[in-house]
Design goal:
By secondary structure, the protein is mostly helical. About 70% of the residues lie in helices and about 5% in strands. The chain has 7 helices and 3 strands. The two termini are about 30 Å apart. The model has no long low-confidence stretch (mean pLDDT about 90).
Length: about 170
């Protein structure tokens, strides 16, 4: 977000219309997300010589606690199949994941963490949690709880809007 956009957000009066306040909220969420993501990307690069997409693949495989098809992994990552394949191939070369074809359908590939992948992910996940905690260190537990409740309400509002096709 550029300086002009940030200045406009700060200068917007509290009594601005609902649509202006909604826009202000969206821009603030975007700015926070972008700032945290930029920091996390750099820390992964500096501390682990890896990328956020590689961490995301490892995290999904760790959470799955077994094997996933490449299609399931791609769906959970919400990216294209080509992006997933490239990341998985690099992780496989490093011994962090293994891919194997289905005995029933050679077109279907499964992927899972290796022991080395589990160990590597555990170190990255611990560091990642610490980085996010550092980013939120000026907030107390009550403030975080309130934000979580408010963001849950926002998510519900978005889902309701989407179920109506985005129409009022």
């Amino acid at each position: 977000m550029n300086d002009l956009s940030q200045r406009r957000i700060r200068e917007m009066p509290a009594h601005a219309s609902h649509s202006k306040q909604s826009l202000r909220l969206w821009l603030r969420l975007l700015a926070c997300t972008s700032a945290i993501e930029k920091n996390v990307r750099q820390r992964f690069k500096d501390d682990f010589e890896t990328t956020l997409p590689r961490f995301d693949v490892l995290a999904i495989l760790d959470w799955a606690s077994d094997t996933l098809t490449m299609g399931e992994l791609t769906e959970r990552l919400m990216v294209s199949n080509g992006n997933t394949t490239g990341v998985v191939k690099r992780l496989e070369r490093e011994g962090l994941v293994e891919r194997f074809s289905s005995p029933d359908d050679r077109r279907t590939f499964y992927v899972r963490l290796t022991g080395k992948g589990k160990t590597s992910f555990a170190k990255m996940a611990s560091a990642h949690e610490s980085w996010i905690d550092d980013a939120c260190n000026s907030l107390n537990a009550d403030e975080i709880g309130i934000m979580l409740q408010q963001l849950a309400a926002l998510k519900e509002s978005i889902e309701v809007d989407q179920s109506r096709g985005g129409k009022r």
